Amino acid sequence: MLVLALDTSTELGTVGLVRDSELLCELRFNIKISPHSERLIPAIDRVISSSNVSIKDLNLISVVIGPGSFTGLRVGLSCAKGLSFATGVPVVGVGTLDCLVRQLQGVKIPIVPFVDAKRNLIYSSIYVDEKPLFPPMALTYEELAQQLEKRSIFMVTGPAVELYKKRLAENFRENLVLSHPVARYISAFTVAELGTKIYQSNGAPELAGLEPIYIRGADVKLGKTII
Asked: Is the pTM of this model over 0.70?
């Protein structure tokens, strides 16, 4: 199966081609240089041409649908849908936090992804054996820290770790494990891997029903303890 993987959920975007669990080509681009809307289509063209395949050869498009940057998510999903309309290739969506955790497969301790939600909020959950203990939420650092107090040890990952690394070290000196910096950004291989798994299990949804996962802090209410 030839899968085109797209991620524009955070400031570091990625496009890649994966064939039968083999990464053929991957390009990454940073929004600090130019917006995803300007880089995504050229990156797709370059990845496809560099892999000596045609867009007509694709069997699946896997795209990250959030949570993450509102603008980035719209850009990525709109592009995936446009390609699907033009080629008939099915599209599946994968979660930002799920991808970040999947990249640490084999880790036996709880994993806590950190994705910047702006306004001093963090998109996060707590994963055990790659399963979230609660749905993705937009939490303040204090709210998330409260959920971690009873954990004897846990690993944090994701692009927003750097923003909170100092506070985490101060609050959880003995409990905290940091993921390798490379694992804090989503890879095209992971997007393709999770997308393929979803497609083989459930097929592809109707394009009209595939929407970004938008989460706002006002949409959720936390009690003192989630877990």
From this structure: yes
- Taking a C-beta distance cutoff of 8 angstroms, is the pair 177, 109 a contact? yes
Q: Comparing 106 with 218, which gets the higher pLDDT?
A: 106
C-alpha of 134 from chain center: 17
The mean pLDDT value for 184-200 works out to 98
Long-range contacts (CB closer than 8 Å, 24 or more residues apart) made by 172-175:
172/145, 172/148, 175/148, 175/151
Rounded Cα distance, 120 and 135, in Å: 19
pLDDT of residue 216: 66
Q: Which residues contact 25 (CB under 8 A, 6 or more apart)?
A: 16, 17, 47, 50, 51
170-182: average pLDDT? 95
Closest-CA residue to 222 (of 122, 110, 131, 72) = 122
Whether residue 115 is predicted with pLDDT greater than 80 in this model: the reply is yes
Residue ranges and CATH numbers for the domains of the chain are 2-96+185-214 (3.30.420.40), 98-183 (3.30.420.40)
Closest CA to 3 of 83, 72, 75: 83
Q: How many residues does the chain have?
A: 227
DSSP letter (8 states) at residue 34: S
Asked whether 184 and 159 are in contact (CB, 8 A), the reply is yes
CA distance 133 to 69: 23
**104 or 227, greater pLDDT:** 104
Query: Would you say residue 225 has pLDDT above 50?
Result: no
d(CA 227, CA 61): 35
